[in-house]
Amino acid sequence: MHLIGLFDKKAEKFINYFPAPTLLVCVRSLLDNSEIRKYLNDFYVADLGEFNDDNGNFMPNIDVAAFCNPTPLVDFLNVKCSVEDVARVARAFKKSGSDSFADWLKDLNIVVD
Question: What's the predicted TM-score (pTM) here?
Answer without folding.
Answer: 0.60
